[in-house]
Specification:
Structural class: mainly beta
Length: 117
């Protein structure tokens, strides 16, 4: 059974930092394209950052230079370091694992990030 469990969300002031973690079991994350998505109230879920098995990264323009995606293969855990947080970063953040050519995709349950003064 594949499980993705996010943690690290919370309430932070503008300009602050948070690190999200996604602990994964049932698959080896280094063999998957891993991603962080977010969904704000009333908006569609959007890709924030992605990390390929070849260590290629992709970021939404709104987070470039502020967020960093990484993984620890030994811990089978994905991270998202978020710095210089803005009000508009407020959303539920979801961890995702996919191997599109095999039709495999898995989601975590989400963790709330609230940026507020």
């Amino acid at each position: 059974q594949v499980q993705l469990v996010e943690s690290g969300g919370g309430l932070v002031q503008p300009g602050g930092s948070l690190r999200l973690s996604c602990a994964v079991s049932g698959i080896i994350i280094s063999r998957y394209t891993m991603g962080w998505y977010r969904q704000a109230p009333g908006k569609q879920r959007e890709l924030v950052a992605a990390l390929s098995p070849a260590d290629n990264t992709n970021y939404d323009d709104s987070v470039k230079g502020r967020f960093t995606i990484s993984r620890d293969n030994a811990k089978n855990t994905l991270y998202l370091q978020m710095n210089s947080l803005k009000l508009e970063d407020t959303a539920v953040y979801y961890c995702n694992a996919q191997r599109s050519f095999e039709g495999k995709m898995y989601w975590g349950q989400g963790t709330q990030v609230t940026v507020s003064s």
